[in-house]
Amino acid sequence: MSQQPADANLLAGILSEQTDKRIDILRRIADVGSISEAARSAGVSYKAAWQAIETLSNLAGKPLVEKAVGGAKGGGTRLTTSGQLVLDLADELKRARRTVLDRFARKLAGSDEPTNVTQIARISAASLATSMRNQFPCTIEVMKIGSALVKLILRLDDTHLIRASITKESAQILGLREGMEVLALAKATAVNITAEFPVEKSEEQENFIVGEVIRSDRANKGGECTIQLPSGIVIVGFARAGHGLKLHQKAVASLPSSVIVIALAQ
Positive or negative, the Cα torsion across 195, 197, 199, 205? Predict the structure, then answer.
């Protein structure tokens, strides 16, 4: 039974201004008619390829692939109408984004501002509406691939490194590699801010980041607290009741490596 394609405006919002490995996998499926072949040519596992398609389908609210019956090879996988629409939109958005960035590159060429197009393009990541208030540009310094997880060491600024851990499938879909620029995201509720550096070791790998308190609410009952690093990066978290933190005081933000989400701002 044929289905109505997903809403074009919805898909445009999903794709935002960028394409990623998931779109590449979808495109390969369209070319070869097989998820396993698409995964192999994209350099990811079959599981990662299926995860990519399932994520896009969930976001679109419509299936993007379907089984193809018969044919010279006895069947396979093909794109639905919505799947083809996703590819068409991805192509259009890519061309439009390139046009805009080229135009701003010409403007910056005659400017004294020490800002490049890549830095400005990071702002486009804000088009993804998310409740995560902590969003930091980072560089992957170390990437260790385990049997199930990939552990990352990220350069936050000149003096701070943070750890993160994600699944192998997610690392494959994002195409992560050492030296790559990424965004590290974390919910404010996952960040604990205290006046003293913790002395007890946690069972989870914790990230400890020292900064200066620039906002602090409800000292008696505990509440939201914000610190700023010397580099200017701001971290939002929560302090416990009776924290006693005051403006301009040194404080420590701690968060487990497992709560950090990795995203791309291309």
Answer: positive
Q: How far apart are CA 241 and CA 219, in angstroms?
A: 6
Tell me whether residue 112 is exposed, middle or buried, using C-beta atoms within 10 angstroms of its C-beta: 0 to 12, 13 to 18, 19 or more.
exposed
Comparing CA positions, the residue from 94, 91, 16, 95 lying closest to residue 56 is: 16
Both tokens assigned to 235: 């971290």
What CA–CA distance (Å, rounded) separates 146 from 136?
Answer: 25
Burial of 106 (0-12, 13-18, 19+ CB in 10 A): exposed
Both tokens assigned to 143: 């990437």
Cα-Cα end-to-end distance for the chain? 38
pLDDT digits (tens, 9 = 90+) for 34-89: 999 999 999 999 999 998 888 888 777 788 999 877 555 556 899 999 999 988 88
